[in-house]
Amino acid sequence: MLAPDLAGRTALVTGSAKGLGREYLLALAACGADVAVHYRSSDDAAEEVADAARAADVDVTTAQADVTDPDAVDALFDAVEADLGAVDVLVNNVGAFAPEHWESMAFETWQTVVETNLNGTYLCSKRALPGMREQGDGRIVNVGYASADRALANPKNFPYFVAKTGVLMFTRMLAADTADDGITVNAVSPYVVENSDEFPEDLPRGRPASYEDMIQPLLFFLAPDSDYVSGANVEVSGGWLPERV
User: Fold this and answer.
1) Which residue, among 195, 193, 215, has the nearest Cα to 204 in the 3D structure?
2) Other Cβ atoms closer than 10 A to 111
3) Residue 24 CA: distances (Å) to CA of 14, 161, 210
4) What total of structural domains would you count in the chain?
């Protein structure tokens, strides 16, 4: 596995108390980064992850916030900066998933899916930028969805596809807007991961993506030699084609 030296870096992974976010955070700690465990309601799980990260002999903090609330995002970054210094690695991992037909979906569910995936990515990125620009260095990695850049329009879980398409558009726009600031902005886009809510019968290569599969492109984007790679999207889908009948 790639193992870039991230000593001296401060990394914030949103939604890192459980699942993929947890594995991302532990991988960054293993590479030497000081890490901030973010959670919304899973405080016990967040403390467990923090303890696991400390085994890598790095500084660790935990912080609670609703990433769809601008004031809460400000408070989140204030707390992390007070404990660990300016955030120079941000992984936008939070994003609700609601696998149901759009017509039967409550508006509150629609709103939650769009706000956590798209608005949360926007708010956290915007708040991270001043510190990154001041340092002349920063890495942002967003979690997208495989083939979202092809305008998927499945009636089931439609707001998720809408939000993830927005995340990939935002990734490209922000990469262009920060090209002269020493900041890179990229995306990792899975199809089905080992902790996904649903598993289709016909999975590419006969299995979902493992956490290790997802970690590889993240670490590539964070490696020092990847500083010219920005606006990129790596699909971790096993070669999935949504248009295939």
Assistant:
1) 193
2) 15
3) 10, 23, 12
4) 1
Structural domain range at position 80:
10-235
Using alpha carbons, select from 94, 63, 92, 64 the residue that is nearest to residue 80.
63
**What is residue 188's three-state secondary structure?**
strand
From the candidates 39, 122, 160, 191, give the one annotated as an active-site residue.
160
Q: Is residue 2 part of a domain?
A: no
What CATH number corresponds to the domain at position 174? 3.40.50.720
Residues 67 and 120: beta-carbon distance below 8 Å: yes
| Angle at 135 (CA atoms; ends 230, 215), nearest 5 degrees | 45
Residue 3 domain-assigned? no
Catalytic residue check, 160: yes
Q: Which two tokens stand for residue 152?
A: 């998927």
Question: For 78-104, what is each residue's pLDDT tens digit?
Answer: 999 999 999 999 999 999 988 889 899
- For the sheet with 60-64, list strands across it: 60-64, 34-39, 10-13, 89-92, 138-143, 183-190, 233-236
Sequence-distant (6+) residues with CB within 8 A of 82 are none
Rounded-to-integer distance, Cα 41 and Cα 156, Å: 27
Is the residue at 27 inside a domain? yes
In a domain, 183, yes or no: yes
Give 144-167 pLDDT, tens digit per residue. 999 888 877 788 889 999 999 999
